[in-house]
Amino acid sequence: MSTAATPDPQLVRMYERAEQDYLRSLPLEHFMEATDHATQREITLESFALIRAHRPDVQCFNELLVQYPRGKRKKLGQVVPDNMVVVHPVPIEARGSFNLSLQPAAPFLVLEYVSKYNKRKDYDDNYEKYHKELRVPYYLLFYPDNQDLTVFRQAGGKYVSVTPNEYGRLAIPELELEAALLDSWVRFWFRGELLPLPGELLMQLNAEQQARVAAERRAADAETEVARLREELARAKQP
Q1: What is the DSSP letter of 5?
Q2: Residue 37 above 70 pLDDT?
Q3: Average pLDDT for 168-178
Q4: With b meaning 16 or more CB within 10 Å and e meaning fewer, what string describes 43-76?
Q5: Are strands 138-143 and 107-113 parallel, antiparallel or unpaired?
Q6: What is the pTM of this model?
């Protein structure tokens, strides 16, 4: 990977041409997405947005084309994960595509959700790309239809499945992250705490606000009652 401040213009143009060729090659069905597929991507994006508030180096991308050199092959490798996580202390700039030779860091975690209603991708082919070509350290694969979740990690030149921990969750220690199925979706735990969904977070904040208002009301009522009792006591002491 190149870390030069000014990338080779010829290399940049090569990636741009490959990106445009890829976009032009997409069939119409590529833009049709199953509901469960879209829901899981939304859960993932919202969860990693919360993680980034504590770990700015953990950056999550949504359906971003990854382009990379393939040894002596003339044609670039291309793959589009449903979600992808890159770990780097500086914000990653990647608009139309993530061009590996021009980026300071490689994908650390890729996530894919395989639904029988979504036939846009060759997931077997993607597995080989993540495993052998990009050598992504972690790969999360979720089948919503049969509720099957697996996290793979690179070990000894091959992918091995992560064993559930004592809580039944699949850990990615480098990200302080765990994943498991909850209410039919892949949910994420960060530093041991379940990351709330936006609706859950809103309800939690509303509940906290209501509790605070109720506490303030009870305190005000108590002060009023104390003042009333003092007045009655004072009147009782009068001759």
Answers
A1: S
A2: yes
A3: 98
A4: bbebbbebbeeebeebbbbeebbbbbbeeeeeeb
A5: parallel
A6: 0.78
